[in-house]
Amino acid sequence: MAHPTPLDRIRVGSAPDSWGVWFPDDPQQVPWERFLDEVAEAGYDWIELGPYGYLPTDPARLTDEVAKRNLKVSAGTVFTGLHRGPAVWEETWAHVGQVAALTQAMGARHLVVIPSFWRDDKTAEILEPPELTAEQWAHLAKGMERLGHEVKETYGLDIVVHPHADTHIDTEEHVERFLDSTDGELVNLCLDTGHYAYCGGDSVKLIETYGERIGYLHLKQVDPDILAEVVAGGVPFGPAVQRGVMCEPPSGVPELGPVLQAAQRLGVELFAIVEQDMYPCEPDKPLPIAVRTRRFLRSCGA
């Protein structure tokens, strides 16, 4: 059997998301101690913080908890609605500052930025039009550039914007428009392979076309049959996840081997964090999947 090319520039990790964690505090989620124990047991070295407040927010305590399990933190995550213009800046910065300070204290270098949802992921209520106006696009681009600048100046972190289903940065057209209207010195992308496929995009093509803008990866796959039903029925993202639209690799799309090879060819160090959306899920479900996923990624050379 041919050995895969070693992906020596790719640092693999996982995230609370792969344990069914979407909220800081929710009785349907596994306790944070169990997540840390199991992510280490599954063979991962790197983790993300997940929703702010799920893991301990005291840097000394969190440092101790991750160190004793031989884990390291790759990034924190923030949610933003910067297309709404300068009026939301102060509120956004207050949230970003909390998460960025903890991320910096944990020695991480990245802040994953998720745009706000136009459709509620729990209730499916339409909150805003799915298409932005020209003015809103301008607010979004300028706001993200400002955020990238301020986060770098204040906390020494790089922001990576995460295209996401049911947000305004989702399809190939929207992702390319966003990249073309922002400065790569200030703003780069967290390419989530599952969300991009969910919205019809080709991850390998994006990496090959906009390689210098790919700052971070989330590894995820979609089940094409469930996705077809979801698209046909106009199902919102939250209920789609409950149907199992995000599936265990290598059973879905895109193929992760070619994505990782394309990322390796960029010639830069990149995190590739596994995120299999499973909210809500049975507490015993994530660990076996995580073990199998880690084994699969090793078979790809990662």
Q: How do the strands and helices of this protein lay out in sequence?
A:
Blueprint: E1 10-14, H1 32-41, E2 46-48, H2 59-67, E3 72-80, H3 89-105, E4 110-115, H4 134-155, E5 158-161, H5 172-180, E6 188-192, H6 193-198, H7 203-209, E7 214-219, E8 221-222, H8 224-233, H9 237-242, E9 246-247, H10 256-264, E10 270-274, H11 286-299
Parallel strand pairs: 1-2, 1-10, 2-3, 3-4, 4-5, 5-6, 6-7, 7-10
Antiparallel strand pairs: 8-9
Helix pairs in contact: 3-4, 7-10
Shape: globular
**What's the number of domains?**
1
Named CATH topology:
TIM Barrel
Instruction: Write down the CATH class.
Output: Alpha Beta
Radius of gyration: 18 Å
Named at the architecture level, the CATH assignment is Alpha-Beta Barrel
Cα separation of the termini: 17 Å
Order of helices and strands: EHEHEHEHEHEHHEEHHEHEH
Strand content: 15-25%
Q: Which superfamily, in CATH terms, is the homologous superfamily?
A: Divalent-metal-dependent TIM barrel enzymes
Helix percentage range: 25-40%
What profile does the largest beta sheet have?
Answer: 8 strands, parallel, barrel
Strand order of the largest sheet: 1-2-3-4-5-6-7-10
Name the structural class.
Answer: alpha/beta
Number of helices: 11
Mean pLDDT over all positions: 96
- Spans of at least 5 consecutive residues whose pLDDT stays below 50 are none
Question: How many runs of DSSP E, i.e. beta strands?
Answer: 10
Pfam family, one: AP_endonuc_2
Protein name: Inosose dehydratase
Domain Xylose isomerase-like TIM barrel: 36-299
Keywords: Lyase
